[in-house]
């Protein structure tokens, strides 16, 4: 049964190590990447039986992988109802982005201090790969590479807790973008990433942090986090029709 576990055709940099590890690591890495690429929509039910068949492993292994993802905040484990991909509320989305800003600022400051030439070269290659993905219309790969850029930057910061925080925040951000992104789906993150690398390479911490905050502003501006934009109350959603009927009767 274990032979059924296969890596994706084009392994990602972040998941590569996991896929060389245990079966738990492999399953975790595949699901994590699917979330990062926005191939798994918020609210998607994650059937242990279906995932076990897909990966050719036991439910115990699936449960362990889902537990890791739940710890990172991207999967919700519901007692007696199974697991689903998390669907962050508007307030949760705002909290995640606030935390992401704080972590990105710290990572950028540390990256300016610690990033090596080899790491900067890897970041530049990731930007090229990201640009190429969007150019050929592979939006999923482009989004994943954009997220992996920030994970690689966290590695350059040389702070283990920040790497762990960032991994969770990047995956949660991907869910939030999938759930709340407005109609404008243009991407220019690779240009912003290149400018950020240049500032880090120049060891200009002020400019690097300013660029990172601008980058986060750009991501945030594409989200519709208006509390009044949607509702599960049918009377509220169709209140204009109900009001029209009242006026007619009058």
From TrEMBL:
Keywords: DNA-binding, Transcription, Transcription regulation. It comes from the Bacteria. GO terms for molecular function: DNA binding; DNA-binding transcription factor activity. InterPro entries: GntR_C, TF_FadR/GntR_C, Tscrpt_reg_HTH_GntR, WH-like_DNA-bd_sf, WH_DNA-bd_sf. Pfam families: FCD, GntR. Residues 21-88 form the HTH gntR-type domain. The keyword DNA-binding applies. The keyword Signal does not apply. SUPFAM superfamilies: GntR ligand-binding domain-like, Winged helix' DNA-binding domain. CDD domains: WHTH_GntR. PANTHER family: HTH-TYPE TRANSCRIPTIONAL REPRESSOR NANR (PTHR43537:SF53), TRANSCRIPTIONAL REGULATOR, GNTR FAMILY (PTHR43537). This is GntR family transcriptional regulator. It comes from Pseudomonas eucalypticola. The lineage of its organism: Bacteria, Pseudomonadati, Pseudomonadota, Gammaproteobacteria, Pseudomonadales.
